[in-house]
Task: inverse folding
């Protein structure tokens, strides 16, 4: 599954990596992802999840996507319940500890209708990092001795270190077909700026074969150049830039809004008894039926949105 | 234990917080670990440094604004440094973490933790959320585990090792390639357990006030020895409970 | 060539700048490469992206404030992004660089560059400054080299390969483990050279105005073939020279 | 030469890594470095070089130090000429291209009195990165086929990748005894903030066994916490914090001052004809004779200092 260097280079070389504007709609961006692609999701857990992009993939009717992410929250429930993906590679998967174990995840995984492939969190990160660095593997001292390792043993290698004789695991590079990443700011070329928590979104854009960025705000290239320290990945990794305010809702976006906690409660409640029916109703109401992402936000409710925004903006208050 | 003025979760958080000395660097998970570490910071360990998996070094949690996991912005309040997830986890591998602080669904006599599957992993009766950073923490640092003491949680052999303890005991952990770390304290609402230095079997190191070794054994699915130095812990103080309850006014984690 | 209205260094910079198409990503060293890339940005390639070794992505150099190397803050003017050195060099390995742009002290018929030693490396008559990022650029990307055309610089076999070209020719580069990149244009003040697709021997692709193939051969320490498609380049325009001189008013690099 | 994991862990565990104030003088900090230590130098070339710390090492009469750095400029000349170190591991070594090849470097290396061990720039970075990550090596696709590789072949390994069959170099981790790093801001505990160019100073502090930070300014911990994005390495890697305004002079410190170009011209001129005598005179005047670092700065001259400062502060003017 590790891609050869010749292929990696050829695929990168074949892309148009020139400086050009890439601003498009969510629907156009969804068109860049093909059925069967491996899609890596930026952010982590309930933070900077590219929910609007996932929403667009559901509406576009994508099928057989494989997803990977550092930690998966209710985005994974949406993926399984909507049918856009049947496999998620991640280190942890549940809506969140305060809501108990995700019933949707359990329902799909325990029935064998979907797969949750588990790696340790650092291993996920090192796999992306190897992909980002253009090498086939990263050495690691984690996962040894555990069943986490045993279940994915066919995908990795163990070696005796040629320098120290120590046992080491070699974790296979991950080069996803597409990474979808939500950021605070991005220019029309794709120079993306992150504030606060970076998660794996410094390695992910370089590991992936192309990147779709959704941004709270598209800013001018001049503004990017005034704060080059905050640019966390460069334009030439990026294929599409979409401006989507509240593009992580009902998850959070650092400095802008916290999770929409009441909405998350409702989702958990709705899917608790009958995960399939509950998730179906949720998808109908918030994914298929709305006229637009703004309509979806409206259905979540302005009250929740303002509460989340108040929390989000208070980050440096103390 | 009916005269308790605190819940089992509160007892757990207080006992766990006491295990954290000032000046340590602690990698903390959400729930009891986070509460216990924050409680320690506010009581006896103002120089305790917390690391969160989301890429956070040295934050102070704001009372009443507990983060829903260790990956949201509430985790970053007053942080000294924010960095990528992979890099904060690599601090474990580099040896910069004194204590990894985990919760767990199921633990066995060698301190192996399962948080992935109940039943056969190929056909689980319950798919749990999985390792997150748990496996990395347990593989690469000394570990304190805080969990409820129930027979179904303390089992002879976990069905699946998510986070490695001493594997099959003796030097099997080291033989597997794990050269550092390992569990050293299991803190529950009944007692504090450690591990025999040679066999690596779990044993009782301390009992909470009013709890007997027999009660602990009754709630444990394997035989527990009692350490020669076993003692009784002090009951939670009013101050400890007051600060704890102020941290979690909605009682999200303290029950 | 006595009627030249420009120095050899100016000719070199102009010819090198023309080799850079708009939209490319160029990893540029200090000196002629930096000047040529900046000149290209200001003339025909406004969308040319420059990378500097110091950890700089997409800067615009300010005329008259040329950086002393690619590692000082003058390199960062109007940059899109700043990142660690290792990460900007890893962009080469990941395949994100269209052209690596090098200078060189000495080059051989297979495009191998020496910038480390004159004489026996164990007892050098001159210890040169060494590779810097040159070896990485030459190992991992397609390379343009800009240098003065002198017989002592164009040698049959470099005494030390600092930056690998086609090694011993043929497929020896690939056999060594270098699967990507390689030199494709050597630009001098006399001519532009390329490499035979099979033998990987250097050959003349273009001659600058007023220069003959014989003159180039006279100044080269090994036999040069002439490509079937060889042509004559256009003389530097007044505009090219004016912009170039404005960039380097102190004539640090343009002589 | 690659340290075993047991030893690396034991050495880290033995250090006092608790949160405590570490502010001291240059002289006290120099006392933390022992004869024979491997000292890694932060910054790159003429940028954020910890010159005041090197000045203190010269004055303290340290001997037999081995140094490593991404790229070495006139700091290397000072090291060789003063006799504090006889070996420098780096990728490039000369005062700067505009001054021609360093005569001091040539004189000491060509006479065999000192060693300049050469690795590619990325390889230096990957060696520090492996050290920072706590693994014995990093895989790399650079340096193959070259004499740069052949001259250090005994220190590295070549493997056939167990995933792809490709040839790869494994570069040995570098864990220096001490890293000396100059930064813009640091708190008394050692939380260090960098602006602009980061060079290798994100990996170096973690690779090293201890870190000495010199800072343009010591700021409060509260101020650090107001901008956690700019903190580039954490306090627990740090052993000493020294406040040294203009601590990189006559090199630059991003945003504060550019190189003191006239002074650099003078150094080049002084060492051009007789490197040994010229460097000796320079050391006497700027290293041994001054009463303090401020006195050394005074000898460089307020005019040069203000010119450099004017340039340094203009970074975002355009």
Result:
């Amino acid at each position: 599954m590790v891609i050869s260097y010749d292929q990696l280079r050829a695929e990168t070389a074949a892309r148009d990596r020139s400086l050009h504007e890439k601003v498009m709609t969510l629907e156009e961006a969804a068109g860049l992802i093909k059925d069967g692609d491996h899609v890596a999701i930026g952010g982590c857990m309930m933070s900077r999840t590219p929910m609007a992009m996932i929403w667009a993939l559901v509406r576009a009717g994508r099928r057989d996507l494989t997803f990977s992410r550092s930690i998966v929250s209710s985005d994974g429930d949406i993926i399984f319940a909507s049918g856009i993906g049947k496999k998620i590679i991640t280190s942890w998967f549940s809506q969140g500890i305060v809501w108990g174990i995700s019933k949707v995840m359990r329902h799909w995984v325990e029935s064998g209708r979907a797969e949750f492939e588990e790696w340790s969190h650092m291993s996920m990160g090192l796999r992306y990092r190897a992909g980002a660095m253009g090498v086939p593997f990263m050495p690691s001292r984690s996962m040894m001795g555990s069943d986490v390792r045993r279940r994915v043993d066919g995908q990795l290698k163990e070696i005796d270190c040629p320098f120290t004789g120590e046992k080491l695991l070699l974790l296979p590079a991950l080069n996803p077909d597409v990474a979808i990443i939500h950021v605070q700011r991005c220019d029309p070329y794709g120079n993306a700026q992150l504030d606060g928590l970076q998660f794996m979104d410094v390695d992910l854009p370089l590991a992936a074969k192309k990147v779709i960025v959704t941004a709270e705000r598209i800013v001018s290239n001049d503004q990017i150049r005034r704060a080059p320290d905050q640019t966390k990945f460069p334009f030439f990794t990026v294929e599409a830039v979409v401006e989507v305010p509240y593009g992580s809702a009902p998850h959070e976006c650092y400095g802008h809004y916290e999770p929409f906690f009441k909405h998350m409660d409702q989702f958990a409640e709705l899917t608790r008894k009958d995960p399939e029916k509950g998730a179906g109703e949720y998808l109908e109401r918030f994914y298929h039926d709305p006229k637009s992402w703004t309509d979806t936000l409206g259905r979540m409710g302005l009250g929740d949105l303002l509460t989340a925004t108040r929390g989000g903006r208070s980050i440096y208050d103390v | 234990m009916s005269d308790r003025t605190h819940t089992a979760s509160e007892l757990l958080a207080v006992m766990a917080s006491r295990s954290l000395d000032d000046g340590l660097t602690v990698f903390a998970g959400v729930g009891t670990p986070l509460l216990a570490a924050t409680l320690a910071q506010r009581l006896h360990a103002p120089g305790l440094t917390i690391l969160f998996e989301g890429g956070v070094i040295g934050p102070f949690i704001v009372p009443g604004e507990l983060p829903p996991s260790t990956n949201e912005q509430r985790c970053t309040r007053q942080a000294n440094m924010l960095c990528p997830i992979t890099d904060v986890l690599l601090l474990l591998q580099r040896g910069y973490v004194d204590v990894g602080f985990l919760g767990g669904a199921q633990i066995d006599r060698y301190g192996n933790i399962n948080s992935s599957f109940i039943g056969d992993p190929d056909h689980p009766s319950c798919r749990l959320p999985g390792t997150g950073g748990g496996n990395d923490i347990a593989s690469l640092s000394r570990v304190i585990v805080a969990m409820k003491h129930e027979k179904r949680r303390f089992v002879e052999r976990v069905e699946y090792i998510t986070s490695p303890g001493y594997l099959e005991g003796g030097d099997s952990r080291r033989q597997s390639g794990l050269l550092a770390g390992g569990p050293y304290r299991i803190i529950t609402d009944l007692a504090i357990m450690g591990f025999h230095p040679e066999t690596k079997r779990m044993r009782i190191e301390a009992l909470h006030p009013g709890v007997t070794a027999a009660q602990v054994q009754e709630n444990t699915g394997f035989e527990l020895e009692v350490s020669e130095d076993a003692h009784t812990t002090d009951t939670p103080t009013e101050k400890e409970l007051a600060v704890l309850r102020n941290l979690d006014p909605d009682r999200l984690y303290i029950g």
